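Fold it.
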Amino acid sequence: MTRTTRPVALARNGMVSSPHYLASAAGLQVLRDGGSAVDAAIAVNATLGVVYPHMTGPGGDAFWLIHDAATGSVQALNGSGRSGAAATRDFYTSKGLTEIPSRGPLAAVTVPGAVDSWCTAHERHGRLPLSALLRAAIDYARDGFPVCDSYAACASDVAEVLHAHPLTSRTLMPEQRLPAIADVLTLPRLAATLETVAEKGRAGFYEGPVAAEIARSLQEAGGLLTTEDLAAHHSDWQDPISTTYRGYVAYQHPPNSQGFAHLMALNIIENFDLSGLISSNDPRYVHLLVEATRLAFADRDRHLTDPAFHEIPMDRLLSKGYAAELASRITMDRAAPLQPVTRMGGDTTCSVVVDKDGNASSVIQSLYHEFGSGFIAGDTGVLLQNRGSFFSLDADHVNSLEPNKRTFHTLMPGMLLRDGRLDLVYGTMGGEGQPQTSNALVTRVVDFGLDVQQAIDAPRWLYGRTWGDDRRDLRIENRFPAEALESLRNWGQPVQQLGDFEGVMGHAQAIRVGDKVLMGGADPRGDGLALGW
């Protein structure tokens, strides 16, 4: 029996998993009150935006996959914001910049899309009033919540971000010191903004006083977004993309999400027989998934941006023939030569919900870097994302900055169906780690038969650049056997050994849907729980 940090959660009427226990509890209460999976997901993500403000919030973006049990369909909702109408490369290069700053008002290039996505999803799939879904978030913001381990650690790691803007410092460090675990923090301005959304819906955020204050505060600080940019924003219902993997259908969000990189990797892996491997700790398993990731990332970085600005050859990228061609390039005892990889932030949240009727949601919501831009928009209390800082100022780059454009996005919710039935709802945070962790979750469940908690707990790895460094390495948790790490080094993998349950690996959440029972897992690398009833 594979040991885990906690038992897999079991329930029959509904299940929620998120990276913070208070958010999971808020979602569970909505389910118990008769809410839908979408209702619970809104409650979870609104609450995360209060109690997990270093990772997410109403100033960020969200991507959704929704399973509608009545029709058996999977729907994708793109809640990412577009750049402002005045966001041009010339605006930045005229200031002597060669790249968009990653912090501050100039990093707030794109409209925050999360709140609109809540309202759009609720309009189609909601049962309870929006005010009921935001109640827990409002209460925690107004009355206070305890600072968790992840929040305290992130604040310490990027203290300069919190100190850079006086309002941010006063809001997130009210005693003018770094927050510590079990400190109680209140966010009264954010509570007032959420109250306005609860009363007025989308218009309470993208129009009226809240929108005016967001635009005013940014423009006074030299930023770009206007009230017109906010009013023009809208989420989009889209068809998900999919592929098959060993009898399952794997669904992902289409571009501008990087989800297709995960599907490409599954297609490549499917060319290899994993049945002869004793466990997913086998170095051959890790090597194969790393090599498949490298190949998928090359195409991701070549093509990914807003598809309204660049044609992405999705049919070819997801074809089984192309996967076989890529798989033929993998040598099982030798790593491919190192290639440049995109460096990106990875501080995000994933939440998954299944309700009593079999409806489900997988939502990835984010500010991009920890604490996003670090800029709080005046009296709104909204910490704005820095997702637009990932745009390039190179006119020839596929993800070059243009007005009214969505950027390359790391957020990628996932679902697996089998024989038309929902089987697995999953996702993770972690930037370029999201496809890699998703690859591990799916293969550990499908190929190795692990339950979702076992699959989440199992040691992981992250291939890519170390943030703030140009080195490319394979960061890997130390619970892999020493001989496995030695084999990987001998095959040319750039192994950098880390500790146990490292937060850099991201926080994954998953729910397996059985015939009679829901099975939920939450990542010990975060602060979350899977809760059911």
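The chain has a mean pLDDT of 94.
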